[in-house]
Write a structure and sequence with these properties.
By secondary structure, this protein is of the alpha+beta class. It has 8 helices and 8 strands; from the N terminus they run αββββαβααβαβαβαα. It binds zinc ion (ZN).
């Protein structure tokens, strides 16, 4: 073989190798592009799934569910946060949206509740009755004056120690009872924890939008002593999410980056 032929052969081999490498490179890029397209489709599919998912507590869509004879919006929510650090504003219109609770549903003196949440509470009480559990409203909405009287009665009991009194009875303007979005059931007494009403609420209240507002192990967060009898309406989807996350309303508002005063004067009909 002459030197020229050798060089020509080498050139051919190199060219063939080059062609092979190029083909592989093209094939690889096509394959990669293909999988990228697939991924894109996956993302679109996921997005589509999300949009057809149930309404979530962070959006305003409605999601009608049946509870007994009632049809309720599972995504209707009232996340207003009221506590010692978040008092109701001075211009708060106490009792701006009240309805009267029929006497068969309550065993206490007070009988007013927020009109928007009453269908949920009523459905819950009737469902408990169906299960043979005598759930009744003990203390729902309290006016500013009623809360003031309760607070100063407690201060007297604590020998003038307002700070100590405030851990048991909220100062006027810092009580959830002032918002009409909660209720004490049957009694405001630690014996409630050992009743079938409490057991029933623990199992079922979230299905009607209520949470145990002041759990035993969260006193450091809520600033309120454990109250087995005090249940707060937040909304069905929100209650389930709060329970799944195992958080208090204080933490939930932070996690969701909500305005603590969300829903303050919101008309429940247009919500
Ligand atoms: Zn209460």
């Amino acid at each position: 073989m002459t030197g020229d032929i050798k060089t020509a052969l080498h050139k051919r081999i190199i060219m063939s190798l080059y062609a092979l490498v190029s083909t592989i490179a093209v094939l690889v890029s096509v394959f990669t592009a293909g999988s990228a397209v697939n991924k894109k489709n996956d993302v679109t599919a996921t997005k589509k799934n999300n949009s057809s998912k149930a309404a979530s507590p962070t959006d305003d869509r409605t999601e009608m569910v049946t509870r007994g004879e009632y049809t309720l919006d599972a995504n209707y929510k009232r996340l207003l946060l009221v506590n010692a650090n978040n008092p109701l504003p001075e211009d708060y219109k106490y009792g701006w949206n009240l309805t009267k609770i029929d006497s068969k549903y309550h065993n206490g003196q007070l009988d007013q509740i927020d009109a928007g949440i009453w269908p949920y509470m009523k459905a819950m009480i009737e469902a408990a009755w169906k299960d043979g559990v005598d759930l009744k409203v003990w203390s729902p909405y309290r006016s500013y004056d009623t809360q003031r009287i309760l607070f100063y009665n407690r201060v007297k009991k604590e020998n003038g120690d307002e700070a100590k009194a405030a851990t048991a009875v909220a100062r006027p303007g810092t009580s959830e009872h002032n918002t009409a979005l909660c209720a004490d059931f049957n009694m405001a007494n630690s014996r409630f924890e050992n009743t079938e009403m409490f057991d029933w609420l623990c199992k079922n209240a979230e299905d009607y939008g209520f949470i145990l507002r002041y759990p035993k192990d969260r006193i450091n967060i809520t600033g309120v002593m454990y109250e087995s009898w005090h249940w707060r309406f937040v909304g069905i989807n929100a209650a389930k999410e709060i329970n799944n996350l195992n958080v208090t309303l204080e933490e939930y508002v932070l996690i969701k980056k909500l305005n603590p005063q969300d829903g303050l004067y919101k008309d429940p009909i247009s919500q």
